[in-house]
């Protein structure tokens, strides 16, 4: 296999890993808020979070491209104040992936919080624990299968993303070219053998990860039922 293959795969998994890690920090408090709040704005927030599920990736990528472009207000402000250019950069890919993968992290965790009995929180508050301590030491340990599922689905979804990545990152080898773009490139060039290397590698890795997650979740559920 060529060096470019390993470089592209490394970049792909770096992007997925960083996106998943950042989304864990964003998704947990957001999912907790959505599972607890009775605000009249909850449907609007849930709709915004869920938008990437139904919106064509090229649409989201197009608007992010406009927003990040130095030719427009926000992109020009980032360039002028922070000397940051997000279009066709790895940093831009990370931000776009965070936005596009947000529902894949939030929804499983929100379902996990919603399935917990309110008596858990009430007992913790009765013992004098703060909301933060209750969340960290009581609620999160009880939704470990949801946290694991959310992380893995987010990681796998980021690995396979194409439309948003192409719009924001383009196709710069070593900087923004990830596996899904490489497969498209190789097929377009009729290099089916190389395309198969990328596709088969992604297939085996994602299948192995999902198999591991289902096995771990099964063991977790069994141990909780004992």
TrEMBL record:
Record-stated family: Belongs to the binding-protein-dependent transport system permease family. CysTW subfamily.
Annotated signal sequence range: none
CC terms in the record's Gene Ontology section: plasma membrane
Protein name: Molybdenum transport system permease
Xref: SUPFAM superfamilies: MetI-like
Topology of the protein relative to the lipid bilayer: Multi-pass membrane protein
Function: Part of the binding-protein-dependent transport system for molybdenum; probably responsible for the translocation of the substrate across the membrane.
Organism: Sulfurimonas denitrificans (strain ATCC 33889 / DSM 1251) (Thiomicrospira denitrificans (strain ATCC 33889 / DSM 1251))
GO terms of molecular function: molybdate ion transmembrane transporter activity
Annotated compartments: Cell membrane
PROSITE patterns reported in the protein's UniProt record: ABC_TM1
Domain (ABC transmembrane type-1): residue spans on this chain: 9-213
